[in-house]
Amino acid sequence: MGNRILVVxxxxxxxxxxxxxxxKEGYSVRVFDRLFFGDIGIKDIAxxxxxVVGDLRTMDASVLDDVDAVINISGLSxxxxxxxxPPANYQMNTLATEHLAKLCKQKNIRRFVFASSCSxxxxxxxxxxxxxxxxxxxxxxxxxxxxxxxxxAEKILLAMADDNFSPVIxxxxxxxxxxxxxxxxxxxxxxxxxALTKGEIVLNNGGEMWRPLIDIRDTARAYLACIRAKDExxxxxxxxxxxxxxxISELAFHVRQALIDAGVKVxxxxxxxxxxxxxxxxSTEKAERILNFEAAYSVxxxxxxxxxxxxxxxCDDLENPRYYNIHWMKLLEEASSVIKTTGSVFELPxxxxxxxxxxxxxxxKSEKSIVETGV
Length: 375
Hints:
The protein is α/β, with parallel strands linked by helices. The chain has a single domain (4-334), classed as Rossmann fold (3-Layer(aba) Sandwich). Helices cover 42% and strands 16% of the residues. The protein has twelve helices and twelve strands. It has helices spanning 13-24, 79-84, 86-106, 145-160, 187-198, 216-228, 231-234, 248-261, 285-291, 299-312, 325-342, 354-373; strands at 4-8, 28-33, 50-53, 69-72, 111-117, 166-172, 174-176, 200-204, 210-215, 237-241, 244-247, 267-271. Strand 1, helix 1 and strand 2 (28-33) form a beta-alpha-beta unit. The termini are far apart.
């Protein structure tokens, strides 16, 4: 596998960690990102990467010049953002992925790694008690806009696989852990945020649902494994990536113990008022066997490191909307609407120079008065 990797979405939560790992492993990295969240995730490594700012839906083929492999971790990344604007979700997660894959085929780029999700295994509420551990070969029936868009993108990529194009799909569990572009809208990270701000962890539906989880550094390691793997082992393949399946109530106790060990007092409170359930468990045997991949970072270790890194990296304004994808998207949309009316906040509107002219005249008059009066 070649040395230059294009990471689409490389300034985001996972991207900020993945790009650093690729650099550490000696790869040349080009990041393509719309910078919805600014460049905070990659600002300190700006001189070590090549950054191209743009929207994947209209990305030009020139972005792929001299690229040897592509990792696509872009798009809307959870149910709330997908539910807020389903058409945009489909465009960004499905159609944009198809556009990128077609460009890769035109440029003869073989390796294409796609970020999918274990939420494609989402089952109905009345099936929660069934003892099901899903493998990559099980039939899917995604329920949400988000998981549907990921599943549709998977199908498109697999249909495009041939001797010259080797897509590989990672269905990742819910990610946890610290990133330079931090998020607090993921279950473990949310538990940590609530413990620090309210002193409690609230378990919706009593925490009865199951969820596969994985540390952000292990997630980056899984992408790296896909870059290094042989075509014959991974082309057109899907891999579940997770550290472990947790019942959310069990997860809360793991987090609570890690917080207590770190000196943070926290209680667990049950809440059965929210009946919304997403529950699924997955097998990671295939990734272990073919990719030789096993997750290494436990929930406890990750939580303890978050407690240290959050204040060290200035991410302790825990309610800032920047750390919550749906809140930030709504804020940006509102700001965009206002700017369309007002124009730039401080810059002079185009074709309107009277204020600037009057300001200059006022300065001249003031200077003349000072000379005449001797003040």
